[in-house]
Design goal:
This protein is α/β, with parallel strands linked by helices. It has helices at residues 4-18, 35-49, 65-69, 77-82, 122-140, 154-166, 180-190, 202-209, 228-237; strands spanning 23-28, 58-62, 102-106, 116-120, 144-149, 170-177, 219-222. It has a single domain (17-70, 121-249), classed as P-loop containing nucleotide triphosphate hydrolases (Rossmann fold), CATH 3.40.50.300. The N and C termini lie far apart (40 Å).
């Protein structure tokens, strides 16, 4: 267990490092794994450790920011129905008609378990590129970031890593894991009519996809085995591992 003095030393180490290069804590994990809860708690802890100094604070950005940029009328019918809302104002008149910003596709594996994958329209994929690039701009001007991401596809992974590398950021890769059983329990509890609702099967499929890109994590946390405080402590303890991206951050990245 780290003492207060140990934490002070670790905090000072990454503060000294951040004066030389921006830091990006890239947190990757499946839907319903507790990434957002972890990232919020981590952000508050880092602010506390810096004594409330805004120049040393970390700022949180997220994949979900993209959804907030999209007009409600471009949401897919399935998502709006999950929220229990009126679908009559949607641009899309039926699922997969090409008019929604994204759709959910079932990658059927031949068993009774749905496996829902996010399929973006070309315009929404372009929006994601812009979101990724905006993170790079924040880093270039010296903003330290906590990035709450759900890296579903290989090209998403390549793109965000390229952005972080181009920004000359010191990067800490954090893998968030959770058992499928707990993911699906959380997923079912989120389908409550709010914006946090998720279709059944997204957690299972995203769990299969988001850790399939050969990323070598600096720290792994298991949110069904560790408390949020324990997960935050694990990330804090690994901050001195933040470093520029290189070929060793992925295994067989080009194979």
């Amino acid at each position: 267990m780290a003492t207060d003095n140990d934490r002070d030393v670790m905090t000072q180490a990454w503060q000294n490092q951040s004066r030389q290069a921006p830091i990006a804590i890239l947190v990757n994990g499946p839907s319903s794994s507790g990434k957002s809860t972890l990232c919020k708690a981590l952000q508050e802890r880092l602010v506390s450790d810096s004594g409330g100094d805004q120049s040393k604070a970390f700022y949180r950005v997220a994949f979900d920011d993209m959804v907030l940029m999209i007009a409600d009328s471009l949401y897919p019918i399935s998502f709006v129905q999950l929220q229990g809302r009126d679908t009559s104002t949607l641009a899309s008149r039926e699922p997969h008609d090409g008019r929604a910003a994204w759709e959910y596709v079932n990658d059927d594996a031949g068993d009774e378990n749905p496996r829902m994958r996010l399929a973006t329209s070309p315009h929404t994929r372009q929006l994601l590129t812009g979101l990724h690039r905006s993170w790079g701009e924040h880093l270039r001007i010296g903003t330290d970031l906590i990035i709450d991401h759900f890296i579903q596809d290989e090209d998403w992974c390549d793109e965000v890593l390229d952005v972080l590398q181009a920004a000359h950021a010191n990067v800490l890769l954090v893998g968030v894991h959770c058992s499928v059983e707990e993911l699906e329990r959380r997923e079912s509890s989120r389908a409550d009519g709010g914006v946090e609702g998720r279709p059944r099967g997204l957690a299972r499929r995203s769990n299969e996809l988001c850790h399939s890109h050969a990323l070598v994590y600096d720290v792994d946390v298991w949110t069904d085995r560790q408390s949020t405080a324990e997960s935050v402590e694990a990330v804090i303890s690994a901050l001195d591992l933040a470093r520029p991206l290189g070929p060793t951050r992925r295994v067989n990245a080009n194979s």
